[in-house]
Design goal:
The complex is a heterodimer.
Chain A: H1 5-21, H2 26-46, H3 50-74, H4 87-109, E1 113-114, E2 118-119, H5 138-148, H6 151-173
Antiparallel strand pairs in A: 1-2
Chain B: H1 3-22, H2 26-44, H3 50-81, H4 92-106, H5 114-121, H6 124-132, H7 136-144, H8 151-168, H9 175-192, H10 198-221, H11 227-230, H12 233-236, H13 238-252, H14 260-272, H15 277-302, H16 325-334
Helix pairs in contact in B: 1-2, 1-7, 2-3, 3-4, 3-5, 4-7, 5-9, 6-10, 8-9, 8-15, 9-10, 9-15, 10-13, 10-14, 10-16, 13-15, 14-15
The chains are: A mainly alpha, B mainly alpha.
Chain lengths: ~180, ~350
């Protein structure tokens, strides 16, 4: 099972995405978002990115999703929608689950899957330790490169975040 | 809006488009599109009524979907080519998805439904920015990936856009919707020649922007958003009726005005590439566009449009100062004799 852990984690990832795309109330959407964040962290960690996985937990789940949860709790209604309360939501959720199950069976059964991109069988999902990646871990060097060679990206993303705050304040200001 | 904040947000719109046009890394291009989208939302919502909010929401939803499709195409391209540089997109799937995403951003058929509704819901100045500046970024990306775009899809979208832009504008009396359908049709002309000679796309874009700027500024000057209101300009500033006449006929593509130049060059380029039926159809469908421009000139400049006697005098607001209107009018009507200068683009 450990060889195919990435495959299992991606299936859980997709299922939790289906869970919040079927639009229950935002509180329950946030719940499956936590699950999907944790599973996504697992996927990244399996590729050797322990720092980035920790970032997902700390910043995404522990910062952004907490704020989202608080604001949703302030704006929630008395009987929020669950997946089983509304026929439409349950129908979409089951449809998404069905499609994912069929895709998983297709991957497990056949040797080569070519939907948008090709991968041949289950072997492609396993992580191979492809030998020497040197003394330093690749993903830490990537983060270091972001702040040295990628200074322009930091400037652009920083400015986008700043303008995002300005935009949100302008939009919600009213008259 | 606080002027400092407004300037910051407007500069961010400019910065977003600049980042899209000047980046060589696909991710930065996507970031540029998102920055552009984020910053233009409060500009679209300058007045706080439900119509502008609905229009801004529609714009945000369609452009965000297009950005998501663009990101998917970028990742498929990454998977198949292993690099992030913007060049030809070698994988056909990625190319088709990217073309669809950029068509959604431009407002080409079959993704044109948001253009009239969004343009109608916002103020004239915001509509001006929407229909001119926002077209620059997606068109620049289309220019850069033009060698690898699937010709069938591109030409189908172009011809359908010209058809929809002409036909859809026939039943309109609201000026902003007329300009929106005109934009759809012009985008169709621009993308039709993209695979054959992308320089002409840029030429058409340049002349289209000049003409649309002129039209919008004339509308802003006479504070009119409906045909009826525009037909009273003879009362307020009679000179603008002549200018509206000239600019509208230029938009319709009539020689000897400068609007004829891109159409002529495009038809010539298409026939050089042995496609005869296509430019014939395009030229015939441009007549639909010309019809509703002519209807506008008929009601504005050529006749004194019937109205009740107490509506004939237009309320005189303080005259708005329109930047660069005289040079724009000259450029959007008198550039045709300069066509031989296009040879410098070789």
């Amino acid at each position: 099972m450990m060889t195919y852990i990435v495959f299992i984690l991606s299936v859980i990832f997709v299922v939790s995405f289906v869970g919040f795309s079927s639009k229950p109330s935002p509180i329950y959407g946030g719940l499956v978002l936590i699950v999907s964040g944790g599973v996504g962290c697992g996927i990244i960690m399996n590729f050797g990115g322990s720092f980035l996985g920790l970032m997902v937990f700390l910043i995404y789940l522990g910062g952004m999703l907490v704020v989202f949860g608080y604001t949703t709790a302030m704006a929630t209604e008395q009987y929020p929608e669950v997946w089983v309360s509304n026929t439409t939501v349950m129908g979409v959720f089951l449809l998404g689950l069905l499609m994912e199950v069929m895709l998983v069976l297709y991957v497990l059964k056949s040797e080569e899957v070519g939907v948008v991109f090709k991968f041949s069988g289950m072997g492609d999902w396993a992580i191979y330790d492809t030998g020497d990646s040197g003394v330093f871990s690749e993903e830490i060097m990537g983060v270091a490169a972001l702040y040295s060679y990628g200074a322009w990206v930091v400037i652009v993303t920083g400015w986008s975040l700043f303008v995002g705050v300005l935009v949100i304040l302008e939009v919600t200001r009213g008259d | 809006m606080n002027p400092l904040i407004f300037t910051t947000i407007l500069m961010t719109v400019l910065l977003g488009t600049m980042i899209v046009m000047m980046s060589s890394h696909w991710l930065m291009i996507w970031i540029g599109f998102e920055m552009n989208l984020l910053a233009i939302i409060p500009i679209l919502m300058k007045k706080y009524n439900p119509r502008t909010m609905e229009a801004s929401t529609k714009y945000f939803l369609t452009q965000a979907t297009a950005s998501m499709l663009l990101m998917m195409a970028i990742i498929i391209n990454l998977m198949h080519s292993g690099q992030w540089t913007i060049t030809k997109v070698f994988n056909p799937t990625a190319s088709i998805i990217m073309t669809s995403a950029l068509a959604m951003k431009l407002g080409l058929t079959p993704f044109h439904f948001w253009v009239p509704e969004v343009t109608q819901g916002i103020s004239l100045t915001s509509g001006l920015i929407l229909l001119t500046w926002q077209k620059l970024a997606p068109m620049s990306i289309l220019y850069q990936i033009s060698p690898s775009i699937n010709l069938n899809i591109l030409l189908t979208m172009a011809v359908l856009s010209i058809l929809v832009g002409g036909w859809g504008g026939l039943n309109q009396t609201q000026l902003r919707k007329i300009m929106a359908y005109s934009s759809i049709a012009h985008m169709g002309w621009m993308t039709a020649v993209l695979a054959y000679n992308p320089t002409l796309t840029m030429l058409n874009m340049l002349i289209y922007i000049m003409m649309t700027l002129t039209m919008f500024m004339l509308f802003i000057h006479s504070s009119s958003t409906t045909t009826l209101s525009l037909s009273h300009t003879w009362n307020k500033t009679p000179l603008t009726t002549t200018l509206i006449l000239i600019t509208l006929l230029s938009m319709g593509g009539l020689p000897p005005l400068s609007g004829f130049m891109p159409k002529w060059m495009i038809i010539q380029e298409l026939t050089k590439n042995n496609s005869i039926i296509l430019p014939t159809l395009m030229a015939i469908m441009a007549l639909l566009n010309l019809y509703f421009y002519m209807r506008l000139t008929y009601s504005t400049s050529l006749t004194m449009f019937p109205s009740t006697n107490n509506m004939k005098m237009k309320w005189q607001f303080e005259t708005k100062r329109i930047t660069f209107l005289p040079p724009l009018i000259v450029m959007s009507s008198l550039l045709l004799p300069l066509t031989p200068m296009l040879s410098i683009l070789d």
